């Protein structure tokens, strides 16, 4: 028998923070990376659509290049985005870590699960987004999608001059290594605590949570969630879009 006097448990709401404030130095000269186009559409719009495609995501916080906020605002207005999703726009900072923190500062109350997703991973499939959210809903405080490595990895003593031979220090067992992607998903309070406590420069949010001593778990990533970093990655991204267009046509 149901008890009408008890309020229904509040549904867990999920927000996504998309850091998009980087310059994209490794991609070469041009517009900030997130504003470069793939198939005629800015990378950032692809990334926003990829996250908003998940029915669980009800808010997307875009962290824009500080000098490009107005441009990003008009891009978001000009492109079709799901009606059911809310959007917020904030200017980013000097480092990815700072940009993510500025995005978290703008999060309204009521979102218990937070995803952090690189604008530079524009083609992540919605199934990967949903798998990350599901693992957080099932109780993991921090979840990262990741893939096994194709290449063997060596730890080296970095050379002082670029191009000089570098002595190898160790070869970690490849089968135990994973290349991590985004979206990374978190219990909101855990992620906020990590950003308040950890100040070392880290390259992903899960790394900050690890420093708190909290367990991070890995779920399967997807090869289409690769990061657009260097010029060849643009070629791959265009090819993935072309393959999708073909498959959609049949
Ligand atoms: N990012 C950010 N704010 C910064 C630096 C990076 O929001 N100050 C974002 C980028 O826009 C990107 C994500 O963090 O979506 C991952 O960073 P990366 O791939 O390194 O992008 P960039 O820093 O732009 O590229 P590069 O390092 O080649 O300059
Ligand atoms: Mg960078």
Automatic annotation (TrEMBL):
Pathway: Isoprenoid biosynthesis; isopentenyl diphosphate biosynthesis via DXP pathway; isopentenyl diphosphate from 1-deoxy-D-xylulose 5-phosphate: step 2/6. It is an enzyme of class 2 (transferase). Keywords: Isoprene biosynthesis, Nucleotidyltransferase, Transferase. Its EC number is 2.7.7.60. Pfam families: IspD (PF01128). SUPFAM superfamilies: Nucleotide-diphospho-sugar transferases (SSF53448). GO terms for biological process: isopentenyl diphosphate biosynthetic process, methylerythritol 4-phosphate pathway. It comes from the Bacteria. The record marks 26, 33 as: Transition state stabilizer. The keyword Nucleotidyltransferase applies. InterPro entries: IspD (IPR001228), IspD/TarI (IPR034683), IspD/TarI_cytidylyltransf_bact (IPR050088), ISPD_synthase_CS (IPR018294), Nucleotide-diphossugar_trans (IPR029044). It catalyses: 2-C-methyl-D-erythritol 4-phosphate + CTP + H(+) = 4-CDP-2-C-methyl-D-erythritol + diphosphate. One of its GO terms (molecular function) is 2-C-methyl-D-erythritol 4-phosphate cytidylyltransferase activity. The record marks 174, 227 as: Positions MEP for the nucleophilic attack. PANTHER family: 2-C-METHYL-D-ERYTHRITOL 4-PHOSPHATE CYTIDYLYLTRANSFERASE, CHLOROPLASTIC (PTHR32125:SF4). Catalyzes the formation of 4-diphosphocytidyl-2-C-methyl-D-erythritol from CTP and 2-C-methyl-D-erythritol 4-phosphate (MEP). Belongs to the IspD/TarI cytidylyltransferase family. IspD subfamily. This is 2-C-methyl-D-erythritol 4-phosphate cytidylyltransferase. It comes from Streptomyces aurantiogriseus.
């Amino acid at each position: 028998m149901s008890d009408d006097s008890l309020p229904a448990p509040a549904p867990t709401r999920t927000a996504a923070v998309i850091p998009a404030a980087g310059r994209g130095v490794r991609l070469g000269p041009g517009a900030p990376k997130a504003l470069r186009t793939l198939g005629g559409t800015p990378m950032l719009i692809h990334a926003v659509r990829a996250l908003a495609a998940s029915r669980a995501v009800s808010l997307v916080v875009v962290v824009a290049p500080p000098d490009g906020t107005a441009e990003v605002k008009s891009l978001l207005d000009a492109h079709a985005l799901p009606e059911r999703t809310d959007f917020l726009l904030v200017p980013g900072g000097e480092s990815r870590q700072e940009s993510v923190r500025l995005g978290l500062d703008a999060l309204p109350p009521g979102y218990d699960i937070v995803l952090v997703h690189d604008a530079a991973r524009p083609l992540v499939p919605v199934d990967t987004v949903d798998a990350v959210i599901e693992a957080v809903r099932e109780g993991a405080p921090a979840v990262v999608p990741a893939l096994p490595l194709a290449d063997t990895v060596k730890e080296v003593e970095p050379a002082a001059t670029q191009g000089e031979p570098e002595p190898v220090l160790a070869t970690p067992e490849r089968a135990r290594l994973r290349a991590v992607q985004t979206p990374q998903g978190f219990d909101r309070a855990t992620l906020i605590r990590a950003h308040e406590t950890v100040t070392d420069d880290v390259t992903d949010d899960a790394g900050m949570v690890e420093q708190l001593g909290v367990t991070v778990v890995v779920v399967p990533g997807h090869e289409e969630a690769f990061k657009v970093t260097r010029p060849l990655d643009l070629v791959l991204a265009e090819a993935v879009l072309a393959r999708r267009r073909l498959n959609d046509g049949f």
